[in-house]
Amino acid sequence: MNQVCDLLIKNCRLLHKDFSTGNDCAVSVSGNQIAGIFAAGESLPDAAEVIDAKGKLLMPGLVDGHTHCCQQLLRGSVADEYPMIWTRILVPFESNLRPEDSYVSGQLACLEMIKYGTTSFADSGGVFMDRVADAVIESGMRAAIAKSTMDTGNAITGAMKETREEAVSNTEALYRAYNGSGEDRIRIFFAIRQVMTCTPELISMVRERAAALHTGIHAHLCEHRDEVSFCLQNYKMRPAEFLDSLGVLGPNLLTAHNVLLSEHDIHIMAERGVKVVHCPRCNLSNHGFPKAPQILEAGASIGLGTDGAAPNNADLFEEMKTLRYGSQAFWGLAAFDPIVMTCKMLLRMATQGGANALGRGDELGTIEVGKLADMILVDIDQPHISPTQNLVNTLVCAAGGRDVTDSIINGKVVMRNRQVLTLDEEKIKADAKQHMREILSRIRG
């Protein structure tokens, strides 16, 4: 008698770890782990639940390495705006959020991410991140959640600004309440919002407490010129050098944006094992071209992030396209190098690179026996995808988040045939509209 598994996905194309694809494959899931991978013609186990994935590609779930769930209700507010957006728009908005606003915003963010094929994400934090964690647990997603920490800067007001003792204490309370919750889908990180809004004393405290709790740190780094100028003027060091002088650069540090890195910055970050995350659409719109080819050449891990809903949507397929064409235009053409940023590199960033950023690279990012069952199905039986001579290339260049039909997270089916099973989509959209109106009313007085 065949051993019974919890879930069997059969008749699928399969994206292997080496980015080759197999036809008529099957994958079994027991509990929250991938239990078996079967080639065409192999005997399949019995299963409590079966998904016939004919015409679909099974691939690892995408990982958003940097987002802001609490900015979900800011959609459409930052395009065509002059700097500094974060001081004029983002911080004032977040300072006016209430706990239920953050909860509804978190629900809406998870709903959007699931429908675009994202199964895990890292949130760099707002004020009421306990309510965001509640929304994530309810959604079935996996996340590394931080609470924003800022203790200096004239532009930071209200609930966003704390003493360094309050900032660390509040993150520790969030850690005690939520780390490991949701069947270990939730991990709590510390945060360094950015070097302009965190004193050296706060940064040192974050380093010490993150090390003591064996958890990660999420920071914005080298996002814009003002940040670099601030560090040079105040510390006589560039931001990466400054963090290194405080002992922060290390394998548990996730840095977002990384646009204005010098060659020396890249070297020390790669040497320290820092996890780099790019947000291509946001960066190319506002800050410049990241040195992604040089960072990869140095041996660092790169993930991709969307930077939240204020500037974009949550579609990581679009981030892959943007980084591909931006890198080709800026770095490739100048050196006549047509493969400066390959499709395989980009898929690795959106899957394994993101998993590394969350500190879960050994558990996520590829479809392998023993890894956590975070997978998505993409409808490839469509005229903009099939037929193709190279499915991986077409997946990056032509597919999008709306082609994702099914999502399995932690071994559970979270979306089936584009219907999210864990969240009430219509209610969340209605609630979000009401909360947006209330927030804007408070801000405008």
Distance between the termini: 69 Å
What is the beta-strand fraction?
15-25%
Largest sheet composition: 9 strands, mixed
Q: Report the mean per-residue pLDDT as an integer.
A: 95
Poorly predicted spans: none
CA gyration radius, whole angstroms: 21 Å
Question: Helix tally?
Answer: 15
Classify the secondary structure makeup into a structural class.
alpha/beta
* Number of E strands: 17
- Give the proportion of residues in helices: 25-40%
Q: What is the overall silhouette? A: globular
Strand-helix topology:
Elements (H helix, E strand, L loop, with lengths): L3 E12 L5 E10 L2 E6 L7 E7 L3 E5 L1 E6 L17 H11 L3 H17 L2 E6 L5 H11 L2 E5 L17 H15 L2 H4 L1 E7 L7 H13 L4 E5 L3 H11 L3 H7 L7 E5 L5 H10 L2 E4 L1 H7 L5 H6 L3 E4 L11 H20 L7 H15 L17 E5 L11 H7 L6 E6 L2 E5 L2 E2 L4 H20 L1
Parallel strand pairs: 1-4, 1-5, 6-7, 7-8, 8-9, 9-10, 10-11, 11-12, 12-13
Antiparallel strand pairs: 1-2, 2-3, 5-14, 14-15, 15-16, 16-17
Kindly describe this structure.
By secondary structure, the protein is α/β, with parallel strands linked by helices. The protein contains 15 helices and 17 strands. Strands 1, 2, 3, 4, 5, 14, 15, 16 and 17 form a nine-stranded mixed beta sheet that branches. Strands 6-7-8-9-10-11-12-13 form an eight-stranded parallel beta sheet. α4 runs parallel beside α6 and α13 packs across α14. The N and C termini lie far apart (69 Å). 54% of the residues are buried. The model has no long low-confidence stretch (mean pLDDT 95).
